[in-house]
Amino acid sequence: MAAIRILYISISGNTRNFVNNLQSYAKQLHADDDANPLIELTEISDQSDFADEKENFFAFVPTYLDGGNGIDNGVKEMMTNSLGEYIDYHNNARRCIGVIGSGNKNFNDQYCLTAKRYAQKFNTELTTDFELRGTDRDVMRVYNILKNKNI
Q1: What is the pTM of this model?
Q2: 28: how many CB neighbours lie within 10 A of its CB?
Q3: Which stretches does DSSP call E strand in the chain?
Q4: Digit-coded pLDDT (tens) for 108-125
Q5: Are 64 and 77 in contact (CB under 8 A)?
Q6: Are strands 96-103 and 126-131 parallel, antiparallel or unpaired?
Q7: Span 70-111, pLDDT tens digits
Q8: Residue 27 CB: number of other CB atoms within 10 A?
Q9: Is the torsion defined by CA of 99, 31, 10, 94 positive or negative?
Q10: Residues with Cβ within 8 Å of residue 103, at least 6 apart in sequence
Q11: How many CA atoms lie within 13 A of 133 on its CB side?
């Protein structure tokens, strides 16, 4: 089975920590049964060179907002713009098979708002979400979701 390709952006380190745990979990499962796909990670930042994606991928995006409540009086996304621009580059959006959001549930309706907006903009699904750095249980749950959708 082909590796699960993940593009992600991480500002505070929470998303990076989660996807690294996801990658380690995949390696453990793959060692026991090579039918379990590995995880291939690419971190996108302001310094990333844009490239044409050749394989399907999932996008992991945290939510950082500045101003407005994101629902009825505007939203100003911050810090994740380079990932959105990368996905928007040439035909990359056609390769995005799902968006996984993270955030802080204390922000209520704004929880995973950036991921919801990315899914809508790039005409794909909001595949799932996790809070902050996620838990071991989240890692197992998200891996199984990605594995089933990576077909």
Answers
A1: 0.91
A2: 9
A3: 4-8, 39-43, 57-62, 96-103, 126-131
A4: 777 888 899 899 999 999
A5: yes
A6: parallel
A7: 556 555 555 578 999 999 999 999 999 999 999 888 877 778
A8: 12
A9: negative
A10: 62, 63, 110, 111, 112, 113, 114, 115, 129, 131, 132
A11: 7
